[in-house]
Predict the 3D structure of the following.
Amino acid sequence: MEGFVAEANRASWNLIAPRREGVPIERLRAGGVVLEDFEQRLAGDVSGRRVVHLACSYGDEVLSWANLGARATGVDISDVAIADARERAAAAGIDADFRRADMLDPPGDLTDLDLIYLSWGAICWVPDLAAFATTVAARLRPGGSVLLCDHHPAWEVLSVREQGRLAVVGDYFGRDRPSTDHDDAKLPQGARGEPDAPGFSTFVWPVSDVVMALIRAGLHLDEFREAPEPALYAGLGPAAGALPAYYVVKASKPSG
């Protein structure tokens, strides 16, 4: 079942990948980064470090880690996205590696990593949270960390359907039950508002499940916070700032 879902999602990602655009390549060529300041602060100095971005899409964050001095690799399930990422790296003159693989089965040589990074729409594609956490923990070196900055599952299940009013459009406790009925605002860029948007299967994992999966995999929780982002609840008005929109988790593998 998991393999079927992954392959169906890969086909859908391949269809929309050409519609997805990153920042102007000149910005990256000039040494710019698209990472949030707090992401850079939590990651620390990555100079010379092995950084892998799982579910990297067209690779702008990977190129940003490389611009910060990391030995950066991006992994994504979409063949088209990886080809685009390689083209962007070449156009920017940035040395970065890109691999086509499922995040639950990354290439075997990606081990002893200093940082595994996931961002802004990654966990919703994970069908087995325990397997994901175990894989991440196994690929880190002692002292290495995973940094996850993602949409809050509350945002995944709440939608502004009319001015100033919310509707429940999903199940916060859906966990490993795939959802294929998506509110348009929750679709990936490239599918949103498109009449021919392909189908996707996603998963809603409560934040507590994500945190505990990492802890049960043997990692130490270093940072956990939730935050609003009113733009993600466009149309709700001032109340948008009272709702969680994203969360941040950093967890490290014990050194001894």
Notes: The chain has eight helices and nine strands.
